[in-house]
Design a protein that fits this description.
Growth Hormone, Chain: A, 75% helix, 15 helices, 2 domains, globular, 414 residues, mainly alpha
């Protein structure tokens, strides 16, 4: 039996932050070398696309189901542990498989549970931070730090040790994620008494909040989220064609991740006094500007400034979406509601990436105008949501600034 005594001496926030580090750190290892590892095993580019897309399609089908199970459990912690253990166990299969179909089976079993736990850990961490009066954004920022650290280290490490080092490194991070899940706190309480309790003003069933104004807001968030997939999928290609040296491409990506982490650490100090939907609208407008300028192949110094805008376009938009959902729903459907938003985001990403690939072949960097257009539409969806259900309506105090008793975390919030 594993002793939990050492874990109990650490704060719930620190234990959750350490877990977030491994969640996104594991993804960072895969993002650096998985495609190259597949190529060395004779997997064609079209098959690599299927390997990456298959878990996303399957997750869209089961994500709400996973969220519903997590919400009905005594604590979200148990579901997070199970998903972490399944993913780690499946990852060991990468040592033994070869060929497209075998790798596909193992990769789906590895990445589906890892993807399914993301909206659950987001919902659980937010509710715990809310209950304790601490900062969700600071805890979540350590996930971005984990991604930055592993992308910075994994590439050189694999380059030095050889491509056979990828699987042990990836499995090691997946195993660390599973082990650290065992030390997660009881998110619904139990470790320490609550310091802050927010009045229950949301709804307790997902169907009760599935109104046009709510869906429109989440659709806007999904379009904003999907627009950022363009940089992950095609940024390096576009910058290479533009003449950006390969050594600077990694720095451009690092600036993007660092600005995201910086905003999340800074968030509790901003103490913004506007609703979450207005924050998301602002993020959409800045994102539309960011992608529009990128369409015209700007100089390198300007590319670095545009990458710094990730602090607004992604970090602020992401946090606004988290708070919007949390403050319109009760704890009893926290993971299910976040899971629904996640499904919309993944669906929008799939459609955007397929469309953008064709547009880049035809129009080059000017295809980024399509991405900018998505953000304009996203802002329009948020404006429509506010027209249908104002932020300060009779039940809409949920979309207004929250109690000043919290440490800045909910003071902009939804």
């Amino acid at each position: 039996m594993i002793s939990t005594a050492p874990a109990l001496r650490l704060s719930p926030e620190l234990r959750a932050a350490a877990y977030h580090f491994t969640v996104f750190g594991t993804a960072g290892v895969a993002s650096v070398y998985f495609g190259i590892w597949l190529t060395h095993r004779g997997i064609e580019p079209g098959e690599i696309g299927i390997l990456n897309a298959a878990p996303v399609f399957l997750m869209m089908a089961v994500n709400l189901f996973v969220g519903r199970i997590a919400d009905k459990a005594k604590d979200w912690r148990g579901v997070i542990i199970v998903l972490s253990l399944i993913s780690a166990a499946a990852a060991f299969g990468l040592f033994f498989v070869s060929g497209f179909w075998a790798i596909l089976g193992v990769w789906v079993l590895t990445s589906m549970p890892a993807a399914a736990l993301v909206p659950v850990i987001d919902a659980a961490t937010f509710r715990m931070a809310e209950r304790r009066g601490s900062s969700f954004s600071v805890i979540r920022a350590w996930g971005t730090v984990g991604f930055m650290a592993t992308t910075a280290v994994a590439g050189p490490a694999i380059g030095f040790l050889g491509e056979h080092a990828f699987v042990p490194l990836f499995v090691g991070f997946a195993l660390s994620r599973a082990l650290l899940s065992l030390q997660l706190p009881q998110f619904r309480g139990g470790d320490e008494p609550a310091t802050v309790l927010k009045p229950s003003i949301g709804v307790g069933k997902l169907r009760q909040v599935m109104k046009p104004w709510f869906i429109a807001a989440l659709a806007g968030v999904a379009l904003l989220y999907a627009s950022h997939g363009a940089i992950g999928a095609f940024g390096a290609l576009l910058w290479t064609r533009q003449g950006v040296p390969e050594g600077l491409i990694g720095m451009l990506i690092a600036v993007m991740a660092a600005s995201e982490a910086a905003m999340m650490f800074l968030w509790p100090r901003l103490k913004l006094k506007i609703s979450a939907r207005h924050i998301i609208i602002f993020a959409c407008v800045v994102a539309a500007l960011r992608w529009t300028v990128m369409a015209f192949s700007p100089p390198i110094w300007l590319l670095f400034l545009l990458q710094g805008l990730h602090a607004i376009t992604f970090a602020m938009g992401y946090l606004g979406g988290i708070y919007f959902i949390a403050n319109w729903t009760k704890e009893s459907i926290a993971a299910e509601a976040q899971g629904f938003s996640y499904v919309l985001q993944q669906a929008a990403s799939v459609v955007m990436l397929v469309s953008l690939g064709w547009c880049i072949d035809s129009f080059g960097a000017m295809a980024m105008l399509l991405v900018a257009g998505l953000c304009v539409i996203g802002a329009g969806m948020l404006v429509l949501s506010l027209r249908l259900q104002p932020a300060h309506s009779h039940a809409g105090s949920a979309d207004a600034p929250q109690s000043q008793a919290k440490s800045g975390l909910d003071q902009t919030m939804p």
